[in-house]
């Protein structure tokens, strides 16, 4: 089925100017997951501003034209937020649910307290709890690069790397893999690993042979020995040709996870983090439409949206001041045409979570909180007119 589907890819890639309502052949419903960054720390939820908003260069306390000075070329519609804020988690997940996103792949840095790893772990736990309350799904993307700083700081030795990662995966198996919302393929929990600077390919192969729980493991870009397949990620130097390169390679694998993204416009040079990368332009939304059609045509069982909220690299599809709800509307339209929307939501309904967030921020009593809790349930259940009336009162 995948081989037949992939012959469509070359055709689709040449039609970047096709209208948003262009029909696509319906297939078995793929699982659409948004890569999610739980690493934002912001006042007043937290006592200080975190690195991912400042990058030691920007000052969010400075406000110009209603926008804080943050490490991004774009600005979230919700403002600079804290990833532990329950109202933000609710806002994000309701938006996802309404546009046809089934859940999240969470960027996870492990269990240690080095740098901000502990904050990310805490925020991931809160996100997972919120995901399951919404009856959505989640999977973990393990950050391969986390072990290098641990060795540098003397937390582990170089010859303990493999055992350290195995211990963290065993923890995932005992605590998160068995949760009802965890993503599985053929009965196995899905685990992604990002990067290639921590463990070598042979180390991952050895580790996978000895994990207590059999995994559907996906490495980045290329399939490692022992992996189910690989997941893709934008490579700025390759631009949109990257999707075709990945598709050709993935024909040899049991499974793959293609990437859908709107652009790649990082802020690293401006922040003096590094020289920055080649840009993949937004192209008035055509980049997102092209990569989205490409991924859906591949016939894979999982599609990853890269990303929900990496503001530093500009790949975010979360609503922004610059792009509004455009990308979410495009995904919603495509999933509706394929009869894949679980809720009968339209573009106007995508504005309801934002209206609810505004009310949450003004709540001054427990009665207000309970009122907006009820509206959140309405939105999550598809009772949009009732939610709209309640928000207007």
Automatic annotation (TrEMBL):
Compartments, as annotated in UniProt: Golgi apparatus membrane
InterPro entries listed in its UniProt record: Glyco_Hydrolase_99 (IPR026071)
GO molecular function: alpha-mannosidase activity
Chief localisation class: Golgi
Signal peptide start-end: 1-20
Highest taxon of source: Bacteria
UniProt keyword list: Golgi apparatus, Hydrolase, Membrane, Signal, Signal-anchor, Transmembrane, Transmembrane helix
Protein name: Glycosyl hydrolase family 71
Organism from which the protein derives: Aporhodopirellula rubra
